[in-house]
Amino acid sequence: MTTYRLRDAAELLGVSDDSLRRWADTGRLTTAFDPAGRRIVDGAELARFAEANATPVPSAGAVVRESARNRFVGLVTRVQRDGVMAQVELQCGPYRVVSLMSREAADELQLEPGVRAVASVKSTNVVVEVAEVAS
User: Fold this and answer.
1) Which DSSP symbol is given to 103?
2) DSSP strand E in 1-135: where?
3) Spatial contact of 99 and 88, defined as CB atoms under 8 Å apart
4) Host H or E run for residue 18
5) Are 24 and 39 in contact (CB under 8 A)?
6) Edge-to-edge strand order for the sheet containing 3-5?
7) Alpha carbon of 106 to those of 38, 70, 96, 98, 129: distances in Å?
8) Which of 30, 38, 65, 79 has the most crowded Cβ, counting Cβ within 10 A?
9) How far apart are CA 5 and CA 24, in angstroms?
10) Phi, psi of 20 (to 5 degrees)
11) Are the beta carbons of 84 and 100 closer than 8 angstroms?
């Protein structure tokens, strides 16, 4: 069983030790005491609490500049989903672009064949191959 001291649990939640202590004192978060008498939180309880109390990420607003230079506008031609991942294919002019992403991301973007999308490519690794030249 994984447990966290209140200080560590507070850090994971992005709140102060005092806030977490108050939540525990009011019964909002279930805690226990370790053999040394320190207050601890069960890891599964902390995960449940974090999910139940998550706040939305603030909107960054419209993107006006970005670091990706390779943007390909095209149509989604195929989406293969499994339990966790999705493979999304786009036809962007003469180029076929394939992206692997979480199924959740593909679902949130409502990606289906025929949807217009933009593939932004930013890579630190580029593989270059040389074909055999016929003599």
Assistant:
1) H
2) 3-5, 32-33, 39-42, 70-81, 85-92, 95-102, 116-121
3) yes
4) helix 17-25
5) yes
6) 3-5, 39-42, 32-33
7) 44, 21, 18, 13, 31
8) 79
9) 12
10) -65, -40
11) no
Q: Which residue has the tokens 């309880």?
A: 45
What are the phi and psi torsion angles at 74 (to 5°)?
-165, -165
Q: Is 21 helix (H, G, I), strand (E, B) or coil?
A: helix
Predicted TM-score (pTM) above 0.90: no
Half-sphere exposure of 106 (CA within 13 A, CB side): 23
* AA letter at 83: G
Domains (range + CATH), the chain = 3-52 (1.10.1660.10), 70-121 (2.40.50.100)
Q: Do residues 114 and 75 make contact, with C-beta atoms less than 8 angstroms apart?
A: yes
Identify whether the C-beta of residue 99 lies closer than 8 Å to the C-beta of residue 119.
yes
- Do residues 38 and 57 lie in contact, with contact meaning Cβ atoms separated by under 8 Å? no
Q: What does the block give as tokens for 74?
A: 């095209």
CA distance 8 to 29: 14
Q: What is the mean pLDDT of each run of 10 residues along the chain (135 residues)?
A: 88 89 95 94 89 74 76 89 95 86 95 89 75 69
